[in-house]
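Look over both lines before class:
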Amino acid sequence: MIRIEAVWLCIEPMDMRAGTDTTLARVVRVFGAAHPHHAYVFANKRSTRLKVLVHDGIGIWLAARRLYRGRFVWPGGGNGAPHSITHEQLHALVLGLPWHRVGENGVISVL
């Protein structure tokens, strides 16, 4: 399907009403460009919704996910600089799991 080589989290909250063009403009503003085969992940202020924008080298894909209970584990504080995460961490994130604890071989460990 869609090849993803790198996954980036944009820490600053995003308005989830944004469509493909607005989300793409945000990627360009925050990251400088939308690189092929990179995924860019955004969350709303309450961390109950995610949007993932992927540039597949030909076009743009935009996916959304919503939790009806609980919140996505989202980094807070800092200077708002984008974070890079692994594929395993992305899979845990979209399920609402503590992605920052995922280590080698996808094992979740206690810190």
